[in-house]
Amino acid sequence: MARFELKLPKMGESVAEATITNWLKQVGDKIEADEAVLEIATDKVDSEVPSEVSGVLVEQLFGKDDLVQVGQTIAIIETESGPASEIKKEVVAPVEVAAIEKSIEVAKESISVPTNFSDSDKFFSPLVKNIAKEEGVSLAELENISGSGKEGRVTKEDILNYIKNRGSVVSSIVETPKPAVQPQAAINKPQTSPVSVNGGDEIIEMDRMRKLISGYMVASVQISAHVQSFIEVDVTNIVKWRDKVKAAFEKREGEKLTYTPIFMEAVAKALKDFPMMNIAVDGDFIIKKKNINLGMAAALPNGNLIVPVIKNADQLNLVGMAKAVNDLGNRAKAGKLKPDDTQGGTYTVTNVGTFGSVFGTPIINQPQVGILALGAIRKVPAVIETPEGDFIGIRQKMFLSHSYDHRVVDGALGGSFVKRVAEYLEAFDLDSDFYV
Predict the structure, then answer these.
(1) Residue 398 parent element (H or E)
(2) Bridge partners, 42 (sequence order)
């Protein structure tokens, strides 16, 4: 019999850890090769971890909600035979055993309970909380740092200055001393559920992804100075062209042709024209992105939202864009996105017209500085200008809603960018080939 170490697999260049959300197999269960053993979640995507071998699950090394690093062993599977990495049993001398046990005890004493910054009534940005976590700053310390930001909020500079001077000052926190390690019952104390006033209301707890989305949205509004520009676009030529070629396109390319790839192509072109819209903000620094990676907001079957990313979108022709849009959209609906599929976006597009909305005011996807909402396409009466004079006709029109970060994007840039997108759409060639 061999014992195989099931490790948390590499999930992409930018993903280093994941949380175990559910064990699909329990100790004693038989497992086939490529069968899913557990479910994991990163901050964006849920996925499954399959077994590389057939055998019996004999040990789970982590529990539900535990955070695991890529490459860590998460389970032991006993196989009939195999080349898998085996756990070798070695004879250890009594002196070595004592030394090992002592090391374990020392390690246990040094372990502290992770600080839950969500327990505070104060707002702290994700960056500040990450710095506090890495530097071991307690919640009590964080709450007592004097903030220089808006409404007294703690900034990156505030917490770095505090950490720099931490060892040379005496804490001025006046409170009852707390034990280094709190009782487990207190740590796991569930949040009090709201009580229905009339007894007929249904109380529904947010799922994990909804909680994450909630945090992202609130943080983005707190971080960025949101402002919007709107423009109406005549897309009659695009509607006529799509109606003319969509059947042949699907037969020839094996892909359905929606409006989304046409709009994404126009956005990618506009970003090349206005590279200062393709940036990110890090504190007092602006990061000008080399690649144009378009995020495509997609609704999941459970109502949650996810933003897969089309990498190097400016290098794709219309067919390539259609394939990318359809692939990411289908895998998002099926829950088959990989963690790297949602990483590295530099600008985001969301199609609010899918749900009948004429326009919207979307929230920026941090640390990006802009997001474009595509409204519903509608037939409307419009003034048509000709050399012979003006007349009223029926045209297909839609609104583009551009939300941008006014800290670094002024109205001239934000308005010019969305106007350029509109110009590309209105100039669409009715005689365009598939490969534009």
Answers:
(1) strand 389-405
(2) none
Which contacts qualify for 318-323: CB closer than 8 Å, 24 or more apart? Answer: 318/261, 318/262, 318/265, 318/434, 318/435, 318/436, 319/253, 319/255, 319/434, 319/435, 321/261, 321/264, 321/265, 322/249, 322/253, 322/255, 322/256, 322/257, 322/258, 322/261, 323/253, 323/255
Q: What are the pLDDT digits (tens) for 394-430?
A: 999 999 999 999 999 999 999 999 999 999 999 998 8
pLDDT at 102 over 70: no
Token look-up 């909305």 returns 357
Residues 6+ apart with CB under 8 A from 386: none
Write the CB contacts of 98 (distance below 8 Å, at least 6 apart in sequence). Answer: none
**Residue 144 near residue 132, CB atoms below 8 Å:** no
Which secondary structure element, helix H or strand E, spans residue 374, and what is its range? strand 370-374
Is residue 368 helix, strand or coil? strand
Q: Helices marked H in 10-125 — which ranges?
A: 94-110
Measured CA distances, 264 to 236, 276, 330 (Å): 17, 18, 17
Catalytic residues: 406, 410
Higher-confidence position of 260 and 43: 260
- How many C-beta neighbours within 10 Å does residue 347 have? 27
Please report which confidence band the pLDDT of residue 151 belongs to, taking 50, 70 and 90 as the band edges.
Answer: low
Question: Exposed, middle or buried by CB within 10 Å (0-12, 13-18, 19+), for 149?
Answer: middle
Q: Does the model's pTM come out above 0.85?
A: no
Place of tokens 């998002």: 332
Residue 220 and residue 47: Cα distance in Å, rounded? 26
